[in-house]
Amino acid sequence: MIAKPASLRARLLLLILIPLVAISILAGYWRITTATKTAEELFDRTLMATTLAISRDVAVSGGDAISSSTLDLIRSSSGGEVFYHVHGPDGVFITGYATPPVAPRDLQVNNGAPILFLSRYRGEEVRVARLREFVTIDTISGYSTITVWQTMAARQAFARDLAGRAAIVMGSLILTVVLVVWFGINLGLKPLTDLQEAISIRSSDDLSRIRRPIPREVSGIVRTLNGLFDQVTRAFASRDAFISDAAHQLRNPIAGVLSIAESVRDARSDDARLSRTEDLVAAAKHVARLTQQLLSLERARGRTDPTTRQVIDLNALARDVCERNAKRVLDREIDFEFVPAARSVPVHGDPVFLEEAVENLIDNALVHGGSNNTKITVAVSAADTEARVTVSDSGIGIKPEDAETAFARFGQVGPAEGSGLGLAIVVETAQNHGGSVCIDESDIGARISIRLPLAAPGSESPML
Question: 3-class DSSP state for residue 16?
């Protein structure tokens, strides 16, 4: 089962949103990390400031108590509950909570400067600031230790609050972008929907080119579509022309066959019937040949399939055609000669169509050469980038200025037996192969050449 392709609108939205969401995730991670670090710095500074404030109060009050202003500072600026413990210079507990958190064993305490470390207090993780300094209280001198600590919950809540605000901002931004992109895409794709509506209201007979204004990004699609319309129009025109030609050209011959057949049926004697039978066979052959040429012309008009083309040797192809037609030419008591090129002549084409084209040139020489035609020559040559097959005869001849009439469908320069389709088929075949047909100047008879481009160097080996 073939999966249904996603809409262009959804594809564009995904192409925009995926990198945007990825960047937002990275930015959110960075913001959470930054918020955590910021919270740690802010709370650590507050903790150290509180430690210094308690130290100064204890020194000023002689170790009796902490001033009310310091207590207010602790309550208002710490962002959470703060605990403290003070040892006097004689090692006696002075104020605060009785049991401070235990410091790590390897902690190095610097006298006169607070240090920070993590510990546990009543089963909770806490951040601790400890200050050891030399003081004199009531004539007692020595080192006093001030320990201040705070649970981690407050700073973690602060970090989550910062990250949450950032997430709200980024989410709002993404939602805004989604809405803007969605409506922007709808607006941007409106010319395509207008184009679809314009095409949908056309009738099946309207294959004219699309001429409405379109965005530059879809001009290639419309140009290709116009090219397809042109091809279909030409194909329909070719079909109509073929039907018209076939109806016109086959009407009289078929009527003649029918008339002769009736005369054979009504013949009064065997001799008359035998004579009329010969006429019937000749008329049937004429209709068969005409039908074959009509079909060949239609096939040539329809262009050859590029997959059937190959690199072939024009020498070998022309030789095969001459061998097949030698008997019927010689039976007419006409000399028949094939003159190959000195080397192989590779061309890129469909061998079936090219053989038929060469055979039609031989037919043309037989039919239109006249009674004075005593020799037909098929020659292959190559020069520069061009290959050539030339069929010449010694008959009535044809002038280059009559080429337009001779190459037209059913066109004949003078009265003759043929249908007038042979040279038209040759012209169509040559043009489909990137070549041309020309009537060369000749002192005796007619000289008609098919010109084809030589195969490019490095092409696959010639066939045939």
Answer: helix
CB atoms within 10 A of CB 66: 20
CA distance 252 to 256: 6
Q: In the chain, which stretches have pLDDT less than 70? A: 1-6, 58-80, 90, 136-140, 238, 241-253, 286-287, 289-308, 409-421, 457-464
pLDDT digits (tens, 9 = 90+) for 202-220: 777 777 777 777 777 777 7
| Phi (first) and psi of residue 106, to 5 degrees | -90, 15
- Which helix H or strand E contains 223, and what residues bound it? helix 219-265
- Which are the contacts of 10, defined by CB distance < 8 A and separation ≥ 6? none
pTM beyond 0.90: no
**Cα 206 from chain centroid (whole Å):** 28
What local confidence, expressed as pLDDT, does residue 1 receive? 45
Q: How far apart are the first and last CA of the chain?
A: 44
Q: In angstroms, rounded to a whole number, what is the distance separating the alpha carbons of residues 377 and 354? A: 17
Q: Given this model, what pLDDT does residue 2 score?
A: 47
- Residues whose CB is less than 8 angstroms from the CB of residue 277 and which lie 6 or more positions away in sequence, other chains included: 264
Pairing type for strands 447-453 and 310-313 reads unpaired
Question: Measured between alpha carbons, how far is 434 from 149 in angstroms, rounded to an integer?
Answer: 93
Burial 237-251 (b: 16+ CB within 10 A, else e): eeeeebeebbeebee
Amino acid letter, residue 404: E
Round to whole Å and give the CA distance between 360 and 407: 12
- 153 contacts 125 by C-beta, under 8 angstroms: no
Q: How far apart, in whole angstroms, are the C-alpha atoms of residue 240 and residue 228?
A: 18
State the DSSP H helix or E strand holding residue 63, giving kind and residue range, or none if neither: none
Q: Are strands 124-137 and 447-453 parallel, antiparallel or unpaired?
A: unpaired
Give every CB contact of residue 40 below 8 A, 6+ residues apart in sequence: 155
Q: How many CB atoms lie within 10 A of CB 138?
A: 11
CB 313, CB 382: distance < 8 Å:
no
Residue 225 pLDDT: 81
Measured distance CA(427)–CA(22) in Å, rounded: 63
